[in-house]
Structures are given as structure tokens and as C-alpha cells.
Write a structure and sequence with these properties.
The structure holds two protein chains of two kinds. Chain A is mainly α. Chain A has helices at 9-28, 31-57, 64-81, 86-108, 113-133, 136-139, 155-178, 180-190, 192-197, 202-228, 233-236, 239-252, 258-274, 282-297, 302-326; strands at residues 145-146, 230-231. Chain B is 37% helix and 25% strand. In chain B, strand 7 (157-161), helix 6 and strand 8 form a beta-alpha-beta unit. In chain B, helix 4 (114-123) crosses helix 5 (139-151). The chains are: A mainly alpha, B alpha/beta. The A-B interface holds A 2-4, 180, 183-184, 187, 190-191, 193-194, 196-202 and B 52, 54, 73-75, 78-79, 84, 86, 90, 92, 94-96, 99, 102-104, 106-108, 149, 153.
């Protein structure tokens, strides 16, 4: 994998196959599995959102539920309390995420490293506490809201919707990362001073990355709440939720767009299939261990393992061909 | 002195209570190559960081082309035509040479063309296939790549942080030709850090010697290197004899 990502007809074919398989999927698997995949699709959206800011620029955000929360709550409140149709409430919620997120994160983007992570974590906690006490008549307080309008009903339609959403977002982010802005963002993670030494304002670049990330988080949050039909602060502003997002992006392969998608699917299925074996929060211990081991031995994630496998197969193939020639 | 391209006056810098630079002033004229020399820890690279804007000095000001640039940020100074290279030639290893050029060309508007990149590569004597991964280049080619990326922007002032480190003698001769050519042909003012005195006699028009954050001598290389104060500061601890 080079940084820009080389597109071949083979890649295109793989994507078409993947798309076709996903479209055909509801015919073959149970509704339960479909609902798991829907969650994986949403997790992939959140992981890509996190990855575009943190994976690319190296500014690790622990506060993505804060952004997702703005999107989800804004759309939920608009449609549930004020009966705004979803066609308007969702775009407005995305806008709210963009504006609200920028207002809060803008000062934070000036600080680096661990402090940035801590400040974003604080924002998430702050949002959690505020949602419960400020205007509970609007937010539903600790109990949240239920009976929120859904965009579509049924497992299969929601599956198609979430899949299309994930696919469009991934494709847009991929296009964006191939532009010079994408290259510059990758460069910030390598050496921020060298980037500004090349005459680029790193603050503006980081702001751009953040705004893209917030937009994606807002879209994801708004659609997610209208899929679930309910919202509660404890589920959303849960530290486990942040870690699931971050670990998905990291073990899939940070700064690659495909990586967070793979990671999200891996994490979701891991958590679901561990559920019967380990019903409690021990599951999180297992996934923490897996993430740790993977991160120590393959810091570039599952994507790097897949690339190794491919290269290994290719090397074997050429080896066989050469032997064939020799004999 | 009448023709000053880049200068600093009374630069003072300290980290905490520890002074790093004390009242440092120097200047460079168009087409002049100024050697900045001094033993380890003299503050040479710190002075570069003050020039580029990464460190904020406690006192003093930095001027370029007649205007005070002390309050400008790193990227604004770069856009004015202040270019620098780093001591360790780190290149993005996963990108090809062509990709590195593309990234540098498109760093800010107006975008430079491929011809500018080829021009830069020619002037940096960089003769490698553009599809090679930048990480596979040797030290000198990496340096040349970084230099080419700066040359194609046609900077006015070039700050080079130990461009000769890790190079063998024949490569240093080529490097001297590359740098001298830029200064003579395009009137670029060059400030070059080097801690080996003998290398500077061949390339520098003038040298400034820093020791423990202070300018202890400046002038023509042969004059300066025979200065007893320089000898004392330099040869005692550097052990060059």
C-alpha cells in the first residue's frame, strides 16, 4: 500500500464483488446477523470519522461520542420534540455537529499530544453530565428518549441504508485523501514542523481534518439515532464506546479508510460471538488483549496482515512459476 | 553591510533559566555563503529555529528583505522565501521520489509544475528514477531530494543545517558546487551550519563562530580560524587538533 493508494482494475473488481455480496446478503442470513452488520456499518462510519482526524494527523481524540452525540441529540430533539421532518432534522443536525464541534474543538487543536486527548475526553464527560441536567424536558435527562421516528423500518432496508451510507462516506473520504490536502494531513502525522516549513498553515489543515471528521460523525450520529429509535446518554457517552471506535480504527489499520471498516466489522463480530461465552464485561478484556497483541506485533493493523498474506501468496506463486520454468 | 538580505539582531534565547543564545547578531548578503560554526551545544541549530520561527526568542529581531519578520509564523516565513533543510535527511519512505516532488509542488498555491521539479532536481544534481521509493535513496540522494524541493521554490534565503554530515569527501565537493551555483546564479543568501572548520574554508565567504550561545568571532575563514579565541573554544573540547 503506497500512501496515495494505487487503484487497479483488480481493486475495482474486488470492490464490485464486495458490493454485490453485501447487496445479496439479506437473502441468505438471518435478521439477527443483519442487525449485527448494521451496527458494524455504523461503527465503521464512526471509526472512519475518528480516523480522518486522529489516524491521519496523529491528534488522538477521545471525544468522538461528543460529536456523535451532538448529531444524534440534535436530530432526535428536532424530530421528537418539534416534529421536524427527518429530511430537515438530519441535515440540521449535521450542521449543528459541524458548528458545535468546531467551537469546542478549535481551542483544543492548539494543544498537542496527550493534552489534546485529555481535553477531548473532558468534553465527552461534560456533554454526558450536561445532557442529564440541562433542559431534561428536551433531552429526556438520564432516561433519554424513545419512540423517535425511524428513517426506514425492518432489518433489510436499514441494512441497505447503513451500507450505502458507509460506502458513500468511505468513497468520499478516499477521494479526499487522494488530494493534496490528504497528503498534507498524512505529512502532519510524520512531521508537523516540516509541513509548516513548507509554507502550509498546519492549524488550518487540522481544522479542515476536524471539520470533515465532525461532519462524518454528525451524519453517522443522526442516522444512527433514527435507526435505533431511541437515545440514552449512558450508552452514547460510554468510555467503552470510545474505545471500540478507536480500537476498530487502529486494529484495522489507521489512516487507510479501508482499515477502520475492516476493524469495525472485526470488532463487532468479535464482541457478538464472544457474548454467549463471556456475557459480562470480560469481553472487553478479551478485545483489549487482542488489540494490544495486534498493536505490538502489527502496528499497522489487519490491513497489513492481509497485505502480507497477499504478498506471501504472490511470492509463492512466482516461486512456483520459476520452478516450473527451470524444470 | 550596505546590501543585507537577511539578518538578526540581539537574539537572546533561553530554555527555562538556561541561556542558549546571548545577543547574537549576524547578516547575510545576496549571493553570499555564510558559515555558521561552533562546537556541539553552541546553539547553531537553536539559532536556525529562531530564524524559521519555531522558537520564540526572549529578545532581538529577525529581518528579511528589509522587513521585520519576527512576529511571523513558520509557514508565513517559508512563503516569503525562507527555506531550510534539516540535519538528518528524513524523507517520507513510503512515497516515491515523484510523489515527494508532487507533494512539495502542491504544498501551496500557485502550484509549481513538473518542469519546476525537474529544474530543481537538475540543480541539485539529483539523477534517480522518479518511481523509486524515497526511502531507498542513500544519504546524499536524500539530501539532494530535499534540496531540490527547496530549489524549485526559488527561495531567497537558504538555511542548511549540517548539509555535509554523513557524506564522503567527493560528495562534499559536489555539494559545494551545488550550493555555490545557487548563490552565484540566483543570488540566494545561504547560511550553512557546519562544525568541521576545514570544510568551511572551501565554501564559505565568511564565517561566524558561535560558542556557548555567543558570537566569538566573524570574518574571512582563514582569519577567523587563526584567531586564538576560536582555537581555544574549538580545539580544546572538539579534539580535532
Amino acid at each position: 500500500m503506497t500512501m496515495a493508494g494505487i487503484v487497479t482494475s483488480r481493486h475495482l473488481l474486488l470492490w464490485l464483488l464486495f458490493g454485490a455480496a453485501m447487496l445479496a446478503l439479506p437473502q441468505f442470513v438471518s435478521n439477527g446477523t443483519i442487525r449485527i452488520i448494521i451496527f458494524a456499518n455504523f461503527l465503521a462510519i464512526f471509526a472512519m470519522s475518528w480516523d480522518f482526524l486522529s489516524g491521519k494527523t496523529g491528534y488522538v481524540s477521545f471525544g468522538h461520542p461528543f460529536l456523535i452525540g451532538i448529531g444524534a441529540y440534535a436530530s432526535a430533539i428536532l424530530s421528537y420534540r418539534f416534529h421536524v421532518p427527518l429530511e430537515f432534522s438530519i441535515p440540521l443536525a449535521v450542521l449543528a455537529t459541524l458548528v458545535g464541534g468546531t467551537l469546542f474543538f478549535l481551542p483544543a487543536l492548539r494543544i498537542k499530544g496527550t493534552y489534546f486527548a485529555l481535553v477531548t475526553l473532558a468534553f465527552m464527560e461534560l456533554m454526558y453530565q450536561l445532557i442529564q441536567v440541562v433542559r431534561p424536558d428536551l433531552t429526556g435527562g438520564t432516561r433519554g428518549m424513545s419512540g423517535i421516528k425511524t428513517v426506514l423500518t425492518g432489518a433489510a432496508p436499514n441494512f441497505y441504508l447503513s451500507f450505502m451510507l458507509m460506502f458513500v462516506i468511505a468513497f468520499s473520504l478516499w477521494l479526499l485523501s487522494r488530494t493534496r490536502l490528504g497528503t498534507a494531513l498524512d505529512a502532519i502525522a510524520m512531521n508537523e514542523e516540516a509541513v509548516s516549513g513548507s509554507g502550509l498553515s498546519t492549524t488550518r489543515l487540522k481544522l479542515f481534518a476536524f471539520m470533515v471528521s465532525a461532519t462524518v460523525a454528525g451524519i453517522g450520529g443522526a442516522f444512527y439515532v433514527h435507526y435505533l429509535g431511541s437515545i440514552a446518554p449512558r450508552a452514547l457517552f460510554d468510555i467503552n464506546f470510545v474505545f471500540t471506535i478507536i480500537v476498530s480504527a487502529l486494529i484495522g489499520g489507521a489512516s487507510t479508510i479501508v482499515g477502520p471498516m475492516i476493524g469495525a466489522f472485526f470488532m463487532t463480530f468479535l464482541l457478538e460471538y464472544l457474548r454467549p461465552v463471556l456475557p459480562g464485561s470480560e469481553r472487553y478484556f478479551v478485545y483489549g488483549m487482542i488489540a494490544l497483541v495486534l498493536y505490538v506485533y502489527k502496528p499497522k493493523g489487519i490491513l497489513a496482515i492481509l497485505a502480507d498474506l497477499r504478498d506471501g501468496m504472490r511470492a509463492q506463486g512466482t516461486g512456483r512459476a520459476q520452478r516450473g520454468k527451470a524444470s | 553591510m550596505e546590501n543585507v538580505l537577511f539578518s538578526c539582531e540581539g537574539i537572546g534565547l533561553s530554555f527555562g533559566n538556561r541561556p542558549v543564545l546571548k545577543d547574537v547578531s549576524l547578516h547575510v548578503a545576496p549571493g553570499e555563503i555564510l558559515g555558521l560554526v561552533g562546537p556541539n551545544g553552541a546553539g547553531k541549530t537553536s539559532l536556525f529555529e529562531v530564524f524559521t520561527g519555531r522558537y520564540t526568542p526572549r529578545s532581538g529581531r529577525v529581518c528579511m528583505k528589509g522587513t521585520d519578520i519576527s512576529s511571523l509564523s513558520i509557514h508565513e516565513r517559508a512563503r516569503l522565501g525562507l527555506a531550510r533543510t534539516y540535519q538528518s535527511p528524513i524523507v517520507p519512505s513510503s512515497m516515491s521520489v515523484g510523489d515527494v516532488f508532487r507533494a512539495a509542488r502542491e504544498a501551496y498555491r500557485p502550484f509549481l509544475s513538473r518542469f519546476d521539479a525537474e529544474w530543481g532536481a537538475r540543480h541539485a544534481h539529483l539523477h534517480v528514477p522518479w518511481d523509486r521509493p524515497a526511502g531507498s535513496l542513500d544519504t546524499f540522494d536524500r539530501r539532494k531530494l530535499m534540496l531540490a524541493c527547496q530549489f524549485m521554490r526559488a527561495p531567497d534565503v537558504l538555511l542548511l543545517d549540517e548539509p555535509a554530515s554523513g557524506l564522503i569527501n567527493s560528495e562534499i565537493d559536489t555539494l559545494d558546487i551545488i550550493i555555490r551555483h545557487q548563490a552565484d546564479e540566483f543570488g540566494i543568501g545561504v547560511i550553512l551550519i557546519e562544525h568541521r572548520l576545514e570544510l568551511l574554508t572551501a565554501i564559505a565567504d565568511r564565517v561566524v563562530v558561535l560558542d556557548l550561545g555567543e558570537v566569538i568571532a566573524s570574518g574571512r575563514p582563514d582569519e577567523v580560524f587563526s584567531n586564538p579565541r576560536v582555537k581555544a573554544a574549538y580545539f580544546e573540547d572538539a579534539g580535532h587538533g
